TrEMBL record, chain A:
The keyword Membrane belongs to this UniProt entry's keyword annotation: yes
Keyword Lyase set for record: no
Bilayer-crossing regions: 26-48, 68-88, 109-134, 146-164, 198-222
Cellular component, GO, one term: membrane
GO BP term, pick one: respiratory electron transport chain
Name of the molecule in the record: Molybdopterin-binding protein
Keywords: Membrane, Transmembrane, Transmembrane helix
GO molecular function, one term: oxidoreductase activity
Domain named Oxidoreductase molybdopterin-binding: residues: 252-385
TrEMBL record, chain B:
Protein name as it appears in the record: Transmembrane protein
Species, as recorded: Micromonospora inaquosa
Keywords: Membrane, Transmembrane, Transmembrane helix
Membrane-spanning intervals of the chain: 31-54, 66-88, 108-129
The keyword Transmembrane is annotated on this UniProt entry: yes
């Protein structure tokens, strides 16, 4: 028998995993994974670009480390879940449009369009996020703004998708996967329900393996267990370095002095004078937007005490400017809450040693519960804002 | 349920609109990376997975064994995907001497080895349990 090749129709796909029972459950888990990504991503966005109404607590000191770890790891978990979901609904790609009914046709076209946006955007977020954790940018767009914009596309498209699929999803989710004995007896030799359960179990298991394989970037006790963690926790002086002094073209002038300015006043200190002030040591993490994090013992002058010593007002936001002359992260604004926290240090030492040039010599900002990119290195100037 | 669906529809459409508006300035450069995923998946990956699945089901006839081998293959594929940006740094990636600080090929090899060691152990145990069950059945007078 010779069959002419033709484009398949949904009925050609007979595997039990192609079923709304499976698609709805995978959809639910994908919804959770993408929901966690979206929520924690929004937080990270607002911390870096705070709108007026937004405040972010300084405690626990590991808060940003946790939210960003959740962001990156739920994204990793979503990779196998997305592929499993698309496998489950692949036959739906071949649904023929109702060509003769204009109203149904336009509804069909709109639904297809929303699904296209959903799948494009979901892939985009996972792929660009994954390249970003390796700090690799093989594209022409600016990653942070594109990843943020497409996050809204995914979130909106998921809501649209749920709106469309709600009746099927509810029916599917309220149907137990374990088929009744009667059904099993009616079709002997083939156990759809156990194959569906195996498919779902495998999907979740693989998602778990993916998380375990990468979680060591941020979970201390998994450091050694995660073979694909993209960063180690080790580095010069005990902490990895993202941006070296050479890459930032830092030259510390021999007559370097820290400048503190506030409305109506100005003060400067040499490094020796800074080191002569009362020093405090705190264990604080460097928690990067790329999800890796590591803790160190930092020693330096609490920013709030430095401001008091200079006679500058406290309880206000403070702008930190680096010796770095260009680059996105040459300056950062420390919110009032963080500027007043006694744990926020202008650090001179890390793990008992003087900061190396790559760690920010002569001094750097280290504040609790903040993204690493905002922990300005090679600080030259503090400006108390109004 | 109608009200809920309508609410989801309105919220979803607004969020998509907002995202699209935010993306507009970069749409040109982002478009290939948006379209690339589904095209690659639908035209290449999904058919390939289907063919491999069919061949595998001919090769491995025991259902339980098939399920575990499939799980091993899917886990391996996922680990490979996650490793791509670590193993392949296109030239446009900025040189960053501080960054690639682990041995990624070794990490991937270890990950795959652990997955397959676990699968082999499971398969051996399954085979042993099978044999014991059949022995007991045939031992019966
Ligand atoms: C990132 C998240 C998601 C993606 C990428 C995704 C993708 C898809 C795709 C491509 C389809 C086939 C569309 C069609 O019927 O033409 C589909 C169907 C479906 N999805 Fe989702 N989905 C996601 C989340 C969800 C969520 C949160 C739910 C709700 C529980 C869900 C429930 C369903 C259901 C019930 C179907 C219909 C399956 C069928 O008719 O066989 N999905 N999904």
């Amino acid at each position: 028998m010779i069959r002419r090749p033709r484009i398949p129709v949904p009925e050609d796909f007979t595997a039990p995993s192609h079923s709304p029972l499976v698609a709805a459950r995978l959809g639910l888990w994908l919804g959770v994974a993408f929901g966690l990504c979206f929520g924690t991503g929004l937080l990270s966005h607002f911390i870096q670009h705070p709108p007026g109404w937004f405040t972010w607590p300084t405690r626990p000191v590991n808060l940003y480390r946790i939210t960003q770890g959740v962001h990156v790891l739920s994204g990793v978990a979503a990779i196998p879940l997305l592929l499993a979901k698309l496998w489950s609904v692949y036959p739906r790609l071949f649904v023929r449009p109702p060509l003769r009914q204009p109203i149904r046709l336009s509804a069909h076209a709109l639904e297809r369009l929303s699904v296209l946006v959903l799948v494009c955007a979901a892939f985009f977020e996972l792929v660009t996020g994954l390249f970003n954790v390796a700090q690799s940018y093989p594209w022409g767009f600016f990653f942070p703004t594109a990843h943020y914009a497409v996050a809204w596309l995914v979130a909106g498209a998921i809501l649209l998708h749920v709106a469309v699929k709600l009746p099927i999803a509810r029916a599917a989710l309220s149907t137990p996967l374990r088929g009744s004995r009667a059904v099993a007896a009616a079709a002997p030799g083939r156990d759809d329900s156990s194959e569906r359960r195996a498919f779902l179990r495998t999907s979740v298991g693989v998602a778990g393996i993916a998380v375990l394989a990468t979680a060591g970037v941020t979970v201390p006790w998994l450091r050694r267990a995660s073979p694909l963690a993209w960063r180690s926790a080790a580095g010069p002086q005990g902490i990895p370095i993202n941006r070296t002094a050479a890459a930032a073209r830092i030259v510390v002038p021999p007559d370097w002095r820290l400048e503190i300015v506030w409305p109506g006043g100005r003060e400067t200190l040499s490094l020796a004078e800074l080191a002569a002030l009362p020093q405090h040591t705190a264990e604080l993490p460097i928690a990067c937007v790329e999800g890796w994090s590591a803790s160190a013992h930092w020693t330096g002058v609490p920013v709030v005490q430095l401001l008091r010593w200079a006679g500058a007002p406290t309880g206000r936001p403070v702008r930190f400017t680096s010796l770095e002359t260009d680059g996105l992260y040459a300056a950062s604004t420390l919110p009032a809450a963080h500027a007043s926290d006694p744990l926020t240090l202008l650090a001179l030492r890390i793990n008992g040693e003087q900061l190396s040039p790559d760690h920010g010599y002569p001094c750097r900002l280290v504040a609790p519960s903040r993204p690493g990119v905002l922990q300005t290195k090679w600080v030259a100037r503090l400006e108390v804002l109004r | 349920m109608r009200a809920v669906r309508l609410l989801l529809l309105v919220l979803g459409a607004s969020a998509v609109g907002y995202g699209g508006w935010l993306l507009l300035p970069q749409l040109g450069t982002a478009l290939p990376w948006l379209i690339g995923g589904p095209v690659l998946h639908d035209v290449l990956v999904a058919p390939l997975v289907g063919v491999v699945g069919l061949m595998l089901s001919r090769l491995v006839t025991n259902r339980l064994r098939l399920a575990w081998v499939t799980a091993g293959l899917l886990a391996s594929a996922t680990l490979l995907l996650i490793a791509v940006p670590l193993l392949w740094r296109p030239p446009s990636a900025p040189p960053n001497p501080g960054l690639p600080d682990r041995n990624y090929p070794l990490g991937l090899a270890v990950g795959l080895a652990v997955v397959w060691a676990a699968i082999v152990i499971v398969l051996v145990v399954v085979a042993m349990v099978d044999r014991r069950v059949t022995n007991r059945r045939t031992d019966r007078p």
